[in-house]
Amino acid sequence: MSGDTGATQMAYRIRHKDRSAGAAVRRIARQQVEAALACIDGTTGDAGRTLHEVRKRCKKIRALLRLVHPGLDADGAGNAAFRAIAAPLGPRRDADVLLETFDDLLTDCSAPEVAALAPVRAALGRHRETIRARDDTDILLREARDALAATLPHIARWTLENDGFAAYSQGLEARYRRGRRTMREACRSGDAEAFHRWRKCSKDLAFHLRLLGPIWPGPMRAQRTCADALGDTLGRHHDLAVLAAQAGRMSDIPAQAVEALVAHIGARQRALAQAANALGARLYAEPPRALAKSWRRRYAAWGRERDCKG
């Protein structure tokens, strides 16, 4: 299946015609579930691509839920439910990413270094085939479809405590503040897990910039571009950490090859960390409370546009 169409991308945002914040949240979540169901139903050959697309839909719904947390009554179909739907779909995609990450790393290596790392690629290939043999994608997609369809009646009953920007402000400020904190932790410690925590926060911010983008389209589009670049950079950093850990667990890779791999990974991660720090300094320049106040004013102006049109 192909990625998001323009119409679906437009759906992942608030609209003037939404009667309330609650109506917007229900609509956005429902449309993401329906898009995931259509993706599953339209699968013709590339099941791996479909698994990836369905996981992306679940991530977008979970980011939406974090935006309106804690004022949402999710009626039994909250963050944990969508995490549980996505979790079984991950191993096959993760095995593909391991090989993609390894191959990308080789672009910095000389011919002798590539030859020395050949046992790593062979082992990763065997690992991927093991995962593919173990996981029946037809069953995985059928189970995901049933679980996703079961969320629709719950989504229809979702309610929010607040309306207007108040429905979004607490979750927005909390996740942004956490992103700033995890950025500082990652920059200070250099720890891969800290960078991974920062990555999750940066992905949420990118989604929140999409969701609330209509309130100030141009500037927030620029911020979103920066957030997407940061998420991609931190994602590559995390993929390398996963590759190092996986190679270290594989008994069929010679120790010398693992050591060489880890050295190359370390060099690449340092470059990625430097790039991420530069992006993060721009993206998280504004204090959390000031950001929330600024977005609140933009939201109010956006609402007045609707009143003028009406």
Could you explain how this protein is built, in words?
Mean pLDDT is 94; it is low at 1-10. The protein has a single domain, classed as CHAD domain (Alpha solenoid), CATH 1.40.20. It has a two-stranded antiparallel ribbon. Helices cover 79% and strands 1% of the residues. By secondary structure, the protein is mostly helical.
What is this structure's SSE topology?
Elements lengths: L5 H6 L9 H21 L5 H22 L3 E2 L5 H8 L3 H16 L5 H6 L1 H17 L2 H20 L2 E2 L5 H24 L2 H20 L5 H33 L5 H29 L4 H22 L1
Antiparallel strand pairs: 1-2
Helix pairs in contact: 2-3, 2-8, 3-4, 3-8, 3-10, 4-8, 5-7, 5-11, 9-10, 9-13, 10-11, 11-12
**Apparent shape:** globular
Q: What composes the largest sheet?
A: 2 strands, antiparallel
Instruction: Tell me the CATH superfamily.
Output: CHAD domain
Q: Count of helical segments?
A: 13
Number of domains: 1
Helix content: over 70%
Number of strands: 2
Quick one: CATH class?
Mainly Alpha
CATH architecture: Alpha solenoid
Brief overview, please?
The chain has one domain (6-296): CHAD domain.
Short key terms for the protein model shown above:
mainly alpha, CHAD domain, disordered N terminus, two-stranded antiparallel ribbon
